[in-house]
Amino acid sequence: MNDNPPQPLLDHDICVHIFTASAAMVGVCLTVIGIIRMVVSLRHTDVLGDDLLALNAMAYLAACLMSYWALRTRSLGRNHRLERIADVLFLGSLTLTAVNAAFITWAISSFH
User: Fold this and answer.
1) Distances (CA, A) of 98 to 11, 56, 64, 83
2) pLDDT at residue 93 tops 90
3) What does pLDDT average to over the chain?
4) What whole-number distance in Å separates Cα of residue 71 and Cα of residue 99?
5) Model confidence at 57, in pLDDT bands (50, 70, 90)?
6) Residues 6+ apart with CB under 8 A from 64
């Protein structure tokens, strides 16, 4: 007899959404890094925002890879762990995106 309670079925749509949104956000981060680099070169100043965005892109990439791995794995236990990791990474990345947006806004407004 199995004493372990059954684990709830996974909602694979969540992993698919994390996968696609994270991949798109990596591209967004790279685009904004390019724009910031252009502004920095024109104004001859440097900001920390592009470094933070590079870190943000890496966090989104990690969430993307974890969700992809969760979609590809056959083990239900591993699937649950990877899905939780992908969720945490994605939500952390979203938080970092908001912090980056505030920091970049502050840094650009202080150029004047």
Assistant:
1) 27, 10, 19, 23
2) yes
3) 84
4) 30
5) very high
6) 18, 19, 22, 23, 26
